[in-house]
Every structure is written in structure tokens, then in C-alpha cells.
Write a sequence for this structure.
């Protein structure tokens, strides 16, 4: 049974930082691209960042480029998202997700992922 468990969310002031982590179990972690998505109230789930299974590449949404950094540790089955210079518009529930096969397009869409975590709330106050 695949489990993805996010942690690290919370309340932070604008300009601050948070580090989200996702612990994976029940899958061969190194075979999966790992991504982060977010969903704000009343909005669709949107792509944030993804890293390939051997850390060969990473993609970011334009809205977070230069502020967020994705990383993964295949030995520990974890993927992290370092979020700096946070803005109120970053407020959302953040989800970790895993994709075993993908295209350049699907890896940036929620439908391209096979497994999801339960999410962790990030709130940025102005």
C-alpha cells in the first residue's frame, strides 16, 4: 500500500520560509518522479514543482521559480520543498505526488500522477 505523508506546513508571515517534507512508503521510490502541487480554496489543484527519479531535472511553476526548491533523498524515500520569500498568494494545501510514467506535459498536470498524499496546509499572512 503506497503512502505519501506530508509534513512541515504552518502559518508564516509574508517573506518568511517553510520547508515541506514528504515521506513515501510502499513503492520503489527511486522509480518515481516526485512532485508538489497546491490547491487554494475555490481553485483547481495546480502544479508547483517536480523532480525526476535520479534528480536529473526539476521543473517549477513560473509563480514559484527562484523562490522554491525541490529536492529528494532516494536513500530516505523523502522529497522536500524549500519555500522562501513566501507570499500570501502561496497560501494553499500542498500535496506531494508520485508519477511512475509521464510525459513532458503530464508531469505538470495533476492527472499525470498515480499516488497522492493527504496534504499539508500552508498559510502566509500579509
Amino acid at each position: 500500500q503506497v503512502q505519501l505523508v506530508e509534513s512541515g506546513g504552518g502559518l508564516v508571515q509574508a517573506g518568511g520560509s517553510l520547508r515541506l517534507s514528504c515521506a513515501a512508503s510502499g513503492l520503489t521510490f527511486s522509480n518515481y518522479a516526485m512532485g508538489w502541487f497546491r490547491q487554494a480554496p475555490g481553485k483547481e489543484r495546480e502544479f508547483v514543482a517536480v523532480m525526476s527519479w535520479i534528480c536529473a531535472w526539476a521543473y517549477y511553476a513560473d509563480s514559484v521559480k527562484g523562490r522554491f526548491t525541490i529536492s529528494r533523498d532516494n536513500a530516505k524515500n523523502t522529497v522536500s520543498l524549500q519555500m522562501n520569500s513566501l507570499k500570501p498568494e502561496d497560501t494553499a494545501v500542498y500535496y506531494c505526488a508520485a508519477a511512475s510514467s509521464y510525459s513532458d506535459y503530464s508531469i505538470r498536470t495533476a492527472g499525470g500522477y498515480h499516488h497522492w498524499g493527504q496534504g499539508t496546509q500552508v498559510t502566509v499572512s500579509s
In short: The chain has no helices and eleven strands. Residues 15 and 98 are 29 Å apart (CA to CA). The mean pLDDT is 95.
